[in-house]
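Sorry to interrupt, but I need a hand with the structure work. It will help me judge whether the discrete encoding reads sensibly. Write everything out right here, beneath this request:
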Amino acid sequence: MTEMIDKSLVRERFRQSLDTYDESAVVQAKMAQKLSELIEVHRSPIIGRALEIGAGSGMLSRLLPHAQIEQLWVNDLVDESMSVIEQIRPDFSPLSGDIEQLELPEDLDLVLSGSTFQWLSDPKAFFQKLHDQIVPQGLLCFSTFGPDNCREVRELSGQGLPYMNLEEHLDLLSDFDCLHAEQVHYPMYFDNARKVLGHLKRTGVNGLQKRPWSITKVIKFQRQYDQQFRDEKGVRLTYHGMFFVLKKRS
């Protein structure tokens, strides 16, 4: 089943993983690199006003064309991430908190987000909110995750985010012209299921888990995971990345 998103719990999980995220978030790093390359292909030579949503540990922020961005707002749910971004872009404007509840800057030329929008409570309303603040011909560029994301964990635990597929995203974003839409599956392999759980904890991806599992439940989960999702490469965990570049119509 899919779960209601508790933003306070998500905030706490990502706060706890802020120091370990970059070391463990291998797939998210690949996705940040790919998204930055897409932005580079489609962006204007000079970007007047830009907003990054869900900057976290600065994985995508480090890859931005900062010399070409005149004014940059940076958002994250975790307040502590703002001190990380300050080391990357000292003159940025912080916009800390739940982006769905915050007032957005106006007349944005570029809105970007890496691996964040899967945590939105109301994507339809939020995409309309973004549309209203992006200038004509402005860009919305983001990566997120699709329905196959961590499907092994979902199959065994019955828990998971309400991921939308590629077509569902495009339906909600029909007021934009789609310049690029793509999905990629990234399988990761571990020695055993215990290391899968450790990986999820270090990346904050366990943001739905309200209470620690009992020892009995952990042992059962690990045994089933090892049995069902092991092949010659090891124990598999699947990430399902999606990439979008959209332009607001004139």
Residues 26-42 form the longest helix (17 residues). The beta strands are 47-53, 69-76, 93-96, 108-114, 134-145, 176-190, 230-231, 234-248. The chain has a mean pLDDT of 93. The domain at 7-148+160-189+238-248 is CATH 3.40.50.150 (Rossmann fold).
